[in-house]
Protein 1
Amino acid sequence: MGLSIHYSGKLKSKDLLNNLIEEVENFCEAYEWEHHVFEREFPDSVFGKTEFTGNLYGIIFNPPGCETVSFAFLSNGKVCTPAMLLFYAESGDKSLEELITGVHVKTEYAGIEIHSLLIRFFKYSAPKYLNDFKMTDEGGFWETKDERTLLKQFKSYDEVMDKFNYALQNCPKFEDEKFGDYLKRVMGSDYEKLKKPPANEL
């Protein structure tokens, strides 16, 4: 919950990995953001396969107030969420692969400037390095490039979160009430704002 971006995609070629890592490193260093590099090269035998190993390739970084942004890849080249890969490996549940290869990043507490910077960087880097890229931007900036729209969305989410926090403190959940029903009851029409919009392909 909270204003976020959601994305997925696949590296175009294993030969592009190191260039992508260097560009992300330069981006992070320009803003003094923490980052971590995994493996810089794919073995010839694994890239593009349907199956994947437990190894990670690429880079992740952490803008202030923001959840981890991932340009980390599975051995088959798909963008992934490293923490979910660990959970997948421990569970052995093949149905979780879709969760691993969809990245979700809450930007609400990072603010408008960082959110727009990230979207601009994806606008630049995704066509250059990724195939089958899909982005859902709850701030609307990916589609509109309009900071007024982004500001409006941030304010809207802030109001929803304020209402949600108030409800948690003042409107107790009924004993047998499901959490989804509880949210609908206390949030009213704002419940729809918590749902994710459809992803947009590049």
Protein 2
Amino acid sequence: CIPVTEEVRTKELDQVIALDPGVRTFLTGYDGDSFQEFGKADIGRIQRLCSHLDKLMGRVSKASRKQKRRMLEAASKLRIRIRDLVDECHKQVVNYLTSQYKVILLPTFETSQMVVKSKRKLRTPDC
């Protein structure tokens, strides 16, 4: 009888996830078996608060001095609330990923190349 060695893949070796950042869904991950979406519900709430902040800042210029001060205080509180929600979302995702996976693959995220448009002309007198 010839002994044959079999490779046994343990779950520890399979604990790898590749992440893809997005706009509507904060992160999408693929672990070899399934896709996972992180922050899908949180982004909707953050967008709703941001649109409320935009509308509030649009009304600030038309307000009286007393109203303007109150609106600016409310806008400051909204910004803090949005920042806290984003931080909470980040921390929850990081906590989950580090507890479930041994290796986390992140792509290079070069926003400067995403923003640049070729042959773009701004402030031309054509308008």
